[in-house]
Every structure is written in structure tokens, then in C-alpha cells.
Amino acid sequence: MALSNIINLEEYRVAGAKVFTGRDRGAMVRNKSKLDQIEEENEEVKIIIPANVYSINPSFFEELFLNVVMKLGKEKFLSKFHFESLGDYQYERPLYEAIDRILRNKTALG
User: In the chain, what are the domain boundaries?
Assistant: First the structure.
């Protein structure tokens, strides 16, 4: 059975936290949400950013989306992954920074 194509970050939020930060947390969410498998099985993937989130660090996004960005590249990633912010948090800048970092590191590593 295919997994749902929706990942709600609320399910992975530390109680009361308004920030998603750190590579370790991003990796944990990637693994627990089965993000790589969801990407493989679905035409599009929806990421829901909970209301009252104050910040999402690029390092969190970087580790969360590492494999899919390396696989798809920036353009295909952005056309396949759709983001919905339930509050007024502007996620674009840290997301794009994370994507650029992933691709820059991939190039640097060969």
C-alpha cells in the first residue's frame, strides 16, 4: 500500500516548540516520515508547516530533503514538493538556502 503523500511537520514537532532546527532533527523527520519512500511512490508530495512556527533552520531542511534534492535536482524537487504554511511563516528563504547547500556540497564531493 502506498504511503500518504502528505507530511505534516506538526507530527514531528517537539511539544510547544516553535522552531525546527538541526541536522539530527531533519534526519529523524526524514526517516520517521519515510520521506524518501513517499517521494518514490508519489507524483507530488505535500509538506505542511504548522501554524505558529517561528523558524525553520536551513540545516533542518538540508538534512530532511538531502536525498530527494540530490536525486531530483532543484527544479524537479520544487515542482514535485509543494509546501503549505498554515501560519504566516515564510519558509522559502531557508528552503532555497538548504537546496543550494545540498547541490553545492554534491558538486564539491564530485
Answer: 6-109
